[in-house]
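Q: I'm teaching a short session on how sequence maps to structure, and I want students to see two examples side by side rather than one. Could you give me a first protein with its sequence written out and its structure tokens following it? Keep the formatting plain so it prints cleanly on a handout.
A: Of course. Example one:
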Amino acid sequence: MKNKKNKKTNKAVIIFILLILIIIGSGFIIIKTDIFYIKEIIVENNYELDDGYIIKKSSITENDNIFLINLENIKRNLESEIYIKEVEIKRKLPDILKINVIERTGRINYSFNDTHYLLDFDGIVLKEINKDEELFLIKSDIEINRKLGEKIHLDKSNIKFEKILNLSKYIYENNETLNCHILMKKNNFYCIIENNIYIKLDIEESLEYQYEFGLDIIERRKNKGETVEGVIDFTKGENPIYVDFKDLEENI
């Protein structure tokens, strides 16, 4: 009986030693040979930033061992770039690294004090711009933070800017001509349609619903031959009212 136990013990010891040797040998191959040195870095889905810039920002070189690079550090380095929203990095053995990039895309021209800032729909300040081009315009007299790479916030205002961003995205995706824009004044804001037609929105309610309802009211007034150069006001109760510019409480 003892011999059988001893044989089993010896066998287990031998297997354990072999496993240790295999692990050490594998580690030696991984570290000491060039089989797993990165030979190609593939960057995907980047449009604003070129491949070379992204690779340089990642701090990866083709002499790095694919197993020894710290993917979290690389991800952190890349996502510190203003235009990069999210990164996914994958190893493709033995020697290829894939970097999949989700970039931030500027869609909003935020105009304050005759200065224009490019924002994405998350409200991140991407850069200062001179032209609005095919962007959705938000004109404002509300002081904002203007630090590049940070989310915009409004100073001294009760307006929930997150809701403004959601409405801007909704209009951008559903209005091909972009013939309207948003005006923000202190604690009130308006959606301006065709220059002289305003929709004053209630920030506490669904902005998308009010926008569509306001367009419907404008269309009906036009069909009836009624004046539309004024304000459709959603802030005066359950039902929106039409107000002529001369009767407005606020100078816009």
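Q: Perfect. Now a second example for contrast.
A: Example two:
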Amino acid sequence: MQSLILGIIQGLTEFLPISSSAHLAVLPRFFNWPDQGLAFDAVLHLGTLLAVMVYFWRQLVEVFLGKNKLLLKLIVLSSLASLIIVALLKSFIFRSPELIALNLIFWAIVLYLAERYHQGLNKIKSNTVKKSLLIGLAQGLAILPGVSRSGITISTGLLAGLSKKTAVEFSFLAGAPLIFLAGVSSLVDFFSAGNISPYTITNLDLILGLLMSFLSGLAAIFVLFKVMEKIGFKLFVWYRILLGILILLWL
């Protein structure tokens, strides 16, 4: 049951700008579950990676076939920038409820300001190399629970002058390599060590978690594009702030 629920939450919160890591860290505390561990969280990311591949299959086929070399270049540059930041911050990760709450609130405000003041109409063109690097550097900060990978990359894209649609699309595509690396690394750890959390994780747990994160992740992508077109990101901004306050009061 825990794997099933966490899979659903991972899929929904990975693509919505509300921080999947915050929810995966906080939910076990609310339900009095043992912490599933960072590695299991990363395994669930493989389900959301599959959701990205299904939704953006046309763009990904063009990239892999060499038909869109510019997009491939931008994704690679962004991913390398992210990996540098992740390597620098990896040893500083800890799941303090207070830190998670503050990250939720602070980066919610950044998202609000980014949407309010952005004037972006740009698509992915050759002059966006610097912007892709900025997005990649920002994406690396999402290793800290509560920041939100999609939230910070969308915010950076908006502040860099990209349109909402382009910022969201590039956020998903640029995150795919990191999601893949994190998921594969954790799968290797799981099958080599046999246990990646304080309690035993079975193959059924993994299958349920991956399946639910894929289905809910695919639904979340559709929802984000619809909500973005109609009301923007304000709903997510208020949700993050309220969740941050709730965490500070209860945990």
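Q: What should students look for in example two?
A: Point them to this: The chain has eleven helices and no strands. Also worth mentioning: Residues 20 and 44 are 10 Å apart (CA to CA).
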